[in-house]
Amino acid sequence: SSEAEFYNQKCKDALKAHNAVLIAHYYTDPAIQKLAEETGGFVGDSLEMAKFGAAHEASTLVVAGVKFMGETSKMLSPEKKVIMPTLEATCSLDLGCPADEFKSFIEQHPDRTVVVYANTSAEVKALADWVITSSIAVDVVKHLDAQGEKILWAPDRHLGGYIQKQTGADMVLWQGHCIVHDEFKYQALEKAIKLYPEAAVLVHPESPEAVIALADHVGSTSQLIKAAQTVENQQVIVATDKGIFHKMQQAAPEKELIIAPTAGEGATCRSCAHCPWMKMNDLILLSEVFDKQDNEIIVEPELIEKALKPLTRMVNFQS
Ligand code: 13P
Ligand code: SF4
């Protein structure tokens, strides 16, 4: 529409005028992903976003996603200005793991290596030995297990259970969950598979164990896009946020993409395969991002100092 075009142009002008680069997650609105593509910005999974921001020469990073992504970018590049369309965009995993409670959990397991998901606050990261994302989770824990280390994992219980199963590592798990992926249901997915017997099934590891068990491929958002591209199947059932379809369809234009069912028989979905916090990012907020004072990510220097150790391990890890 002409309104969308107006805001698209407004965003482009503002990014240019402020020497800023836009870094977006796959779950954001396609209009935002398109803007990132058109302006030399980036769309990727959470690890790639962190790496791109750290390596880019722009003095300002505009991060479209959820707050932990902005915080990670800031901690990896404290000298850069990091702003977000809204600071209200949180994540149920971050909300479900308050730093003070997590600190007590660590104190109950002093002999364990503390590995946390990137989907956590700066405070939680500052308490960790390692930060990881789903794209390297299994490989990092394999590496730690091979050194005889016992793991304390937080916050996603499904991803933690998946890592444990894949690696056989000794892990204790925090019991958090993602409200979006937790809604993918085994029985409904089984029915969908019967309906599309030729389809490949791609699942993000924040989904429940029984749903993961039905998958042909499990991985981060980027890994799922790669899988959609490389599988021979013409149809692909996808259990993750449907925002991913913008890039997945670009990568696999001839494939039919089908969203995995959320909620069971008779029940209505709450998030309906779209993260309510990712959804808060829109072109209007983005076009105003440089005019406001209250959307800059600020992280205390002591926190940055502590969190940089596990974050640097994350960005430097070679699978
Ligand atoms: P990815 O690292 O796979 O992009 O996942 C981030 C996320 O928030 C998934 O819900
Ligand atoms: Fe967090 Fe889930 Fe949203 Fe990802 S989809 S940002 S894990 S609430």
TrEMBL record:
Q: Record's SUPFAM superfamilies?
A: NadA-like
Cofactor(s) for this UniProt protein: [4Fe-4S] cluster
GO terms in the biological process aspect are: 'de novo' NAD+ biosynthetic process from L-aspartate
- The superkingdom of the source organism is Bacteria
UniProt-listed Enzyme Commission number(s): 2.5.1.72
Q: In which pathway does it act?
A: Cofactor biosynthesis; NAD(+) biosynthesis; quinolinate from iminoaspartate: step 1/1
* Iron-sulfur found in the keyword field: yes
One Pfam family of this chain: NadA
| Keyword tags | 4Fe-4S, Cytoplasm, Iron, Iron-sulfur, Metal-binding, Pyridine nucleotide biosynthesis, Transferase
- Which EC main class describes this enzyme? transferase
Output the Gene Ontology terms for molecular function. 4 iron, 4 sulfur cluster binding; metal ion binding; quinolinate synthetase A activity
Q: Which GO CC terms are listed, alphabetically? A: cytosol
Does 4Fe-4S appear among the keywords? yes
Official protein name in the record: Quinolinate synthase
Organism name: Aliikangiella marina
